[in-house]
Each structure stands twice: as structure tokens, then as C-alpha cells.
Design goal:
The protein has 9 helices and 9 strands. It is an alpha+beta fold. The structure holds fe (ii) ion.
Length: about 280
């Protein structure tokens, strides 16, 4: 039976993320962990990506990569076993596509996986990219992060500031519709600076149902810049999952105790018409 129920969906819609305990059962965990340990390297390595389309599978077949092909089928099967597509469809309220499946290992060490940031922000901490086209605000992934090793606070866990996906969506919508002028908003610092511009603040506040959200976010996030506070850290055991909207503010802490192995499934809306969060 799927671990993804109505309550998980409501929590995800409201907070932008939800933790699912025992997302994989023991047998699934052993099998998936074996596959990912065998094929997945450090982030963005070409071997990390699992097949998700008929073409991907065909390519593996004609390249005689049968062992990899059967492993990829097992990884893809989780999508139907856990009803991930239906869940994502219910989340966005529209048809979705599986946009990525990958796994990667983060070696135990001292460097943070990623500091506080939002995805779909075109840029990075430097904010100096030349942007030709802005993405439609619905062009944003729901990420299903399956832990294949234990994580804890300060040891590879994911952290997410609740409800910030609602603010991120309105930033992207404002820029896309040319109601707001683009300025970098990838990092927490940039995100806060963007919101502190009066025109931006007023546009976003006007459209939020919760009129306190913006104000309280700006107050509460003020002390997070040092990256040390752990109030938004989410511990997880191997087999648990965290599902989150990548448009909210999140970070990945450094794995200080053990290597971190994860498997990720991404879904995003097929059509570009606005999703209301
Ligand atoms: Fe991210």
C-alpha cells in the first residue's frame, strides 16, 4: 500500500514539504540501495541518471547494458508501486511528467551539500548570469528524496523553511508576468533582499492568503544566515523520504558522520497554467 495518503498531501500543500516514514519497506530498501550503491557516483555524474522513457530503455538494450536496464526497471517500478505520479498530479492539480530520476552519493566530509537557497531561480550566489527567458512559474519540480542511508541534524539532513514555496511561486509569477523586475533571489540572502524591495513586498503580500506569512518569514529567517541554526532540520532513516516543492527555501547539510546516498524522483506539471498554492 502507498505510504502517501491524504494527510501527507495536505501537509505538503500547506508547508511545501512532508516527511514520509518507511517510504520503502525493507525489501525495497535493500534492493534499491544495492542498485544505487553500484551505479551512483557523486552529484551530476552521467551514470547517476536512471531510465524513465521508452527511448532510455531502448538505448540501454541496443548498448547491451542488460544488467543496468533491469536495475533501472526496478527503480522505475517504485513510481507505480508508490503511486508517485497520482500523488504529484493531486499536488499540482494537473497532469504531470516524470522529469528526472537520479541517485548520488555525498561523501562524508566538511563541505556543506548546499546552503539555504531556492531552485528555479536561474542563478546562484553570484547572481551574475545573463537571463534571456524567464521560466513559467509552474515550471517547478516536486522532488521525492528517498534516503538510502541515515541522516540527522548536521549530518546530511535536509532543512526546509515551511510555506516558503508560496512566496517563491509568487516571485516567479511576478517576474514572468513582468509585474516585478528580476534581481537574483537564489540564496536566502538574495531572496530576503528581493522581498525587502517595497514593490515586490506589496505585490506578494497582496496575493498571499496568509497576510502574516511574508512578515514572519522575514523576521524568522533573519537569524538563519549563519547556516548554523538547526530548527528546520529533518532527520531521516534509510528508507524514509522527504517530498518537497523545490521553489521553497531549503538546504542540505554536510554529511559529517557517514556518506549520504539518496535516490530522487522529480515531477513537474505538463501544462503551463498557473497552479494555486
Ligand atoms: Fe535545491
Amino acid at each position: 500500500m502507498s505510504a502517501l495518503d491524504h494527510n501527507s498531501l495536505e501537509e505538503l500543500k500547506d508547508n511545501g514539504f512532508v516527511k514520509i516514514k518507511n517510504f520503502l519497506n525493507e525489501e525495497e530498501l535493500n534492493s534499491i540501495k544495492f542498485i544505487c550503491s553500484k551505479y551512483c557516483k557523486e552529484k551530476k555524474h552521467k551514470d547517476n541518471y536512471f531510465s524513465r522513457t521508452a527511448l532510455n530503455f531502448l538505448f540501454k538494450a541496443i548498448s547491451f547494458k542488460y544488467s543496468r536496464l533491469f536495475s533501472d526497471l526496478k527503480v522505475l517500478k517504485i513510481v507505480s508501486t508508490k503511486k508517485l505520479e497520482n500523488f504529484s498530479k493531486d499536488y499540482f492539480g494537473k497532469n504531470v511528467e516524470l522529469s528526472n530520476i537520479d541517485g548520488y552519493i555525498s561523501k562524508k566530509g566538511d563541505s556543506a551539500i548546499l546552503p539555504w537557497h531556492t531552485d528555479r531561480a536561474y542563478s546562484d550566489e553570484k547572481g551574475d548570469k545573463k537571463i534571456k527567458n524567464f521560466l513559467h512559474p509552474d515550471d517547478c519540480n516536486l522532488k521525492i528524496f528517498v534516503y538510502l542511508s541515515d541522516v540527522s541534524s548536521g549530518n546530511g539532513c535536509m532543512s526546509y523553511i515551511p510555506k516558503t514555496h508560496k512566496i517563491g511561486f509568487l516571485i516567479r509569477q511576478g517576474i514572468y508576468t513582468k509585474k516585478l523586475d528580476y534581481s537574483p533571489y537564489w540564496s536566502l540572502n538574495q531572496f530576503r533582499s528581493f522581498l525587502n524591495i517595497k514593490k515586490n513586498y506589496d505585490y506578494i503580500e497582496e496575493q498571499l492568503n496568509d497576510k502574516n506569512l511574508l512578515k514572519s518569514f522575514l523576521v524568522e529567517s533573519q537569524s538563519l544566515e549563519d547556516n548554523k541554526k538547526s530548527i528546520y532540520d529533518y532527520e531521516a532513516k534509510a528508507g524514509d523520504a522527504v517530498i518537497f516543492n523545490e521553489g521553497g527555501i531549503h538546504r542540505g547539510s554536510k554529511p559529517t558522520i557517514n556518506d549520504r546516498l539518496v535516490l530522487r524522483y522529480f515531477f513537474k506539471p505538463k501544462e503551463n497554467s498557473y497552479t494555486k498554492f
